[in-house]
Amino acid sequence: MAIKVMLVEDEAGIRLLLRKMIEKQEGFEVVAECDTLSESVIQFHRKQPEVVFLDIEIKGENGIECARVLTDLNPKVKLIFATAHAEYMREAFELYAFDYLVKPFDLERVNRTLERIAALERPAACEQEEKVVRLDCLQEKLLVKGKESMSFINIPDIVLIQRENNATVIYTETDSYVTSASLADLEKKLNPMQFLRSHKSYIINLSRIRKIEPYGRWTHVVHFQGRKEDALLTAEKFEELKKRFQ
């Protein structure tokens, strides 16, 4: 299945150039093109792209704010800022942008970015477990209240907690639970020796980690035992995690 791409750019000529560059690369499909930030949010909901090429300034509006909205809707979207404004690079990468391309675009540079994305989508040919870490945890429970029900979750069974579509989802190996509680609220209830706030949109159970791989320039992706979902890990938290296991 092709990787879905959305273009957010107010110059039709640039959109056409990007489309041609992207669709020359096998395995990618441009599913939406937008020339306003409001339309990009609508199309993001409709098309669910995995990759977004986004200009920093679109018709006088700030693309950084749009990027924040898109990452709140889907923290795993690969944001590629494609712009003439190199001065925004630091702020863009604070949003965990996958890459930052400066106009005029170089075909080889765009291809390298797409190849990195495609490589992340391919299953690994061989997996090795280099370390085994055992964490002893208290058998505590977390209570999640619904409108007409209450769910009691065994805390060690939690694999990850994620912000998803303006809600918080708690994943165990067999179930998922939706709550309006913030990640900050849940983080306070969890043992910091067992759980890590790996990213603004994720809390992860360290004892459930199966593998960590690079994801973009300064971000990693975490794969878990027992769930197909994964999580993002910032460069700062990656260094913190390495120190824990030394």
Model description:
It contains seven helices and 17 strands. Strand 8 and strand 9 (150-154) form a beta hairpin. Helix 2 runs parallel beside helix 3. The strands form five sheets. The protein has a five-stranded parallel β-sheet with strand order 2-1-3-6-7, with helices on both faces. The chain is α/β, with parallel strands linked by helices and 246 residues long.
Beta-strand segment tally: 17
The string of secondary-structure elements, in order, is EHEHEEEHEHEHEEEEEHEEEEEH
Overall average residue pLDDT: 82
How much beta, percentage-wise?
A: 25-35%
Helix proportion? 25-40%
- Structural shape: globular
Span of the ends, CA to CA: 40 Å
Major β-sheet strand ordering? 2-1-3-6-7
Which structural class best describes the helix and strand composition? alpha/beta
Distinct helical segment count? 7
Please give the largest β-sheet.
Answer: 5 strands, parallel
Poorly predicted segments? 123-138
Rounded to the nearest angstrom, the radius of gyration is 19 Å
Q: What keyword list fits this structure?
A:
246 residues, alpha/beta, five-stranded antiparallel β-sheet, 30% helix, 34% strand, globular
Briefly summarize what is shown.
With 246 residues, the chain is α/β, with parallel strands linked by helices. The strands form five sheets. Strands 2-1-3-6-7 form a five-stranded parallel sheet, with helices on both faces. It has helices at residues 12-24, 37-47, 63-73, 89-94, 107-121, 183-189, 235-244; strands at residues 3-8, 28-34, 51-54, 57-58, 61-62, 78-83, 99-102, 141-145, 150-154, 158-164, 167-172, 176-179, 195-199, 202-205, 209-214, 219-224, 230-234.
